[in-house]
Amino acid sequence: MDSWAPTYSFGGPTSLGGPSAGRDVNIYPGLLRAAPVVGLVPPDELDELREVHVPGPGYDKACGTLRDRHVLILCGDELSGRRATALRLLTHLAGKAVYGLRPTDGLDTVCRDHRPDRGYLLDSRPGVSAATLDQVQLSALEDTLRQVGSFLVVTIPAHAARDLPDLDRYLVEHGHPNPHKVLDRHLRCGSSTHANLLKGWLADPRLGERVDRMVRPQDAVALALQLMKEAEAGTSLDDVLKGLGSSATRSEAQALLSTTTYGEHDLTRLQQLYWRAFVVALAVFNDTPYLPVVAAAQDLAEHLGRTEYPRWGPPGKAAIFSLKRDDWLTALGGELVSRDREGASDEQRVEHVRMRNRDLPAALLDELWTAYDGARTPLLNWLKGLIQPTQPPEIQVRAAQSVGWLAVHDFDSICRRIIRQWAGSRLPSQHMAAAWALEFAATSGGLAPRVRVLLAEWCRSANLAHQATAVLAYGTTIGVRDPAEALRNLRSPARSGNATMTAVVSRSVIDLFTGGAEHEVLNALQEWDADNDDRIRVAAAGALVELAYEADETGTPALLKLFAGADPAAKSLTELWRAALQNQLVRADAWEALRKWFVWADKDPTLQVPLAHLLTAIERVDPTLRTRVAWYLRFWQHHPKEPSATAEKIRSAWEE
After folding, report:
1. C-alpha–C-alpha distance, residues 228 and 244, integer Å
2. Closest CA to 505 of 542, 466, 478, 532
3. pTM of the predicted model, to two decimals?
């Protein structure tokens, strides 16, 4: 299959090709090159390295091993600066007589052409196996180099160290240097003209947080160079941070989507397709359980494959990880985090996968949508297919939010192709997905005015599916940001008289209430209760009953706690409870909700006073309810399942 030529490429004629990414780059400016170091390393570059190099974990051990053995195998992650560390070690012990060997030459070159007082670097590259390092040959080379006072460092990938169990005496693991120290060292070696300004910038926690997230030391080098440039131009730190974040993250996204290699491996064309699928899936489902991400990536790979290949046939479920999982994650700056699963024991912790750069997922989606036209249709079809009742809720939420993020780039097109289709579906899960997408577009993409117009239109529509979607959307942060408009527009769906719609309206009213719009909700429900339309009054009473079951963070009924507070709220609640207890369609549920408050009061006696005040206020507003309240108090006192001591106490005071 790898030999097939794609008839319609993923991103144009190069099919997401471009320069190779992910190769080893040194952590100092003088040797920013991907090609191996061959021949005599220029002395001026070694001088520069000596000034700016920052040792990472394991450096002292590596230096001791090289001094004692004259041979060192330095293993480390790609892009960790292991080559720079190797050169620094050789400079430390051999001065400026440091030579790079061709990776294809191997150890034979040193055996044939060893000279006194030299340092040799064998920098392993893709395609050169570490298994060629032979114990007998290295032992002989160690004796030879010791006699002439020369040294050899071999750099290999971290994963290749597993193939060298017999070479522990030469093997040292190289760790990433501290990015803060790398940044500081490069700034100190730069111009001192703006030293005070740079010192002030480094003390800013926002810049420190950005450095904390750096995975590769060369990112700190690039940041140092950029800071010196911006200081010369007189740029403010706010503008610097804004520019650094967007440009660096976008560059990283471009590199990930266009890579043809990862780590020490050259990817086949088919592996590149699966690589892209996994990168995009992780961007959409960042920091979620690992296994669903893999399943989603497999699904996306099939969508991409059908677009790129005329005779696509999926090669099997394991193809996406035909290479090691840890290598994939390392190459894209990802990591696994063990998390507790709700309701599970310690032995059932779940592995979440995430990108270390928190801005990268959005940048990847932006780059994919704006730079690769061929990816748009398979991407949208994939996201649409993930909104199914069989999918985990977190997968559906992330898929819908990604659609909302893409709508920022082309609102009309995304609405037509996905959001309106979801809104017109007969599946409640797709109504919710449309609401999530609109919420994300409105609150994260600056499209709030257009979203509000669309939701107002759907609320007035005769299409119940559109109405339901709008109601759900108003229960999100869209409604919380403008509760007056949300509650005003919710009157139309509430007037439908449809029982399912009334329940959805109640749910959104609760979401607005718990989102901080308590007084706006109570005022709106009072207005609904005063409406001449019976359907609106039923909706108001039903929303009140549902709200009665909502507890705050302390476990106290939120409505009852509000009743004990401000007088306007207490008056509104009294009127609403009176109406609910009298409404023939709702009153049975209302009395049951009120009984639950007495059960709560049995556990928390501080609630007994506001409960007694509420019943007194209801009886004062409507004396006809006095007999019914007394009957229910006796019933709750002797309830067969949950007898209430609070009901007995209040009834005794009530009848006196």
Report:
1. 13
2. 542
3. 0.64
